[in-house]
Every structure is written in structure tokens, then in C-alpha cells.
UniProtKB/TrEMBL annotation:
This is STAS/SEC14 domain-containing protein. It holds the Pfam family SpoIIAA-like. Signal peptide: none annotated.
Length: 255
């Protein structure tokens, strides 16, 4: 793209509805200003929001305070409207992910390996509505919050769905119970969602007298079992096929 410094190479793929940004090394203020203008021009011309695909080389960083200010200007204006952000790196580039997640906390953010660059571009530019976030499960007592996590759970899902639901149920019932299903359609948590998960635990964890986790994901199962003795309420882990057993346990009288 003419006029854009090579430290942040910006390309537009109109056919796939994405803007590709390749940051490398120290990034000057003009890079971020150029990215912001590219996003604005694209929206004005096409009347739709593009996806953003970030392909970092190494670990990019700011070139002075002016670049830092320009970065935050772009973030403040665009982070809330970009629907999807894909970050394409190898394993050594994963250190770049937390910073991206903190910037684009309202977007759907996913990491793709370098070999899956085409998949990343297709996903970022898609306008299809995927089943992502939380789906309420029916058939539980009113003091039970029963949810299935789909796709990648982001900070937006916590802020818009889970936290308000916990607050409302807490006012109505005091002590609550939680069923969380992490099935094959669950892709993981964004960094922003992990922070919100920790914040939810610190502020509301004592409100849950029982928590049931339904999943076959090994590392999550092991982590929950490890920390279960430290939790104030009862915690039980059920296999992915054990939703009915979890329902019976969470609905039983007593705690």
C-alpha cells in the first residue's frame, strides 16, 4: 500500500472482506494512523465492517510516545466496531496474543497457526453469524444458571450475558448454582474473557453453592479438580455425556 511505512504493511482483500496488517519491529505513529484511515476508508466505501488479520513478524513494539498515543487513538475508535480479529503466528509469536486481546476485547479474537493463514482470512472476513458465546439451557430450577459455551467465549459474552445474569439471579435467590457445559463446539476463552472469569470469581464465587462442569476437555477437568478444594461451594465434574447426571446433582436438595 503506497505511503504506508514498511514497519506495518497494510493490504486490503476486498473479495474476502479483510484488512491484513503485517507489523514488524518498532512501529511509528504514522503506521497506526495509516491503519485507522484504511479501516475508515473501507467502511465508507463498502458500507460494511471488515475483519482484521494480524500477521506479526517477531514481537512488534511502539516507536516512542507519539506511536503509543496514535495506537490508542486507533484502538479507541475502532476496537469496538471490528467484528473479528485473527492473529496468525507460529508458537513463538503467541506472546503477542495477550496484547492484542487487551486491545480488541469486544471483537471475536482467534489465533491461527501460520499454516492456516487462508482459514484465518476466511474466518475474519466472514459475515455469517456463528454460534459463539453462551447458550442458555432449559429445564433447570430457577436458582440454577445453566449454560453451554459455544465457539470462543470473549469478554463481551461475560459483560453482556453472564455477569448481568448472575447479578439478577443473586438478587432473586441469594445462593445460586451453576452448570457449565464445554462441549465439542467450544473453542476456548479469549484473554479478555479469562480476566473477566477471574473478576467474576473474585466478586461472585461465594454466591455459588454448587458448580457442575460438563466436559471431556482434559486440561480443564484436571484444573477444576485441582482447585475444587479451595472453592467455597461444592464442585463436581461430569463427562461430556453426563449432562443428565449433572442436572440431577445440581437440582438435588441440600448443599
Amino acid at each position: 500500500m503506497m505511503g504506508v511505512p514498511e514497519m506495518l504493511d497494510i493490504q486490503i482483500d476486498e473479495k474476502r472482506n479483510v484488512i491484513l496488517a503485517r507489523p514488524e519491529g518498532p512501529l511509528p505513529a504514522s503506521d497506526f494512523e495509516g491503519l485507522g484511515k484504511t479501516i475508515d476508508d473501507y467502511i465508507a466505501q463498502h458500507k460494511r465492517m471488515p475483519g482484521l488479520v494480524v500477521l506479526p513478524k517477531g514481537v512488534p513494539h511502539w516507536e516512542g510516545l507519539a506511536a503509543l498515543r496514535a495506537h490508542f487513538d486507533v484502538v479507541r475508535k475502532h476496537a469496538a466496531i471490528l467484528p473479528r480479529v485473527a492473529v496468525v503466528t507460529d508458537a513463538t509469536g503467541l506472546s503477542f496474543m495477550p496484547g492484542i486481546a487487551n486491545v480488541f476485547v469486544r471483537a471475536r479474537l482467534r489465533h491461527f497457526d501460520v499454516k492456516d493463514q487462508d482459514k484465518a482470512i476466511t474466518w475474519a472476513g466472514s459475515t455469517e453469524v456463528e454460534p459463539e458465546g453462551y447458550r442458555m439451557l432449559a429445564g433447570f430450577p430457577d436458582n440454577v444458571i445453566a449454560l453451554e459455551a459455544l465457539g470462543e467465549v470473549t469478554s463481551r459474552d461475560y459483560e453482556d450475558v453472564l455477569i448481568p445474569l448472575v447479578r439478577d439471579k443473586e438478587k432473586a435467590h441469594g445462593k445460586l448454582r451453576l452448570v457449565m457445559v464445554l462441549g465439542p463446539d467450544f473453542d476456548g476463552y479469549s484473554a479478555g474473557a479469562i480476566w473477566d472469569d477471574a473478576r467474576l470469581g473474585l466478586t461472585h464465587w461465594r454466591s455459588f453453592e454448587r458448580v457442575a462442569l460438563v466436559t471431556d476437555i482434559g486440561w480443564i477437568t484436571r484444573s477444576v479438580k485441582l482447585f475444587a478444594p479451595l472453592m467455597p461451594g461444592e464442585v463436581a465434574v461430569f463427562p461430556g455425556s453426563g449432562l443428565e447426571a449433572a442436572k440431577a446433582w445440581i437440582s438435588a436438595e441440600g448443599a
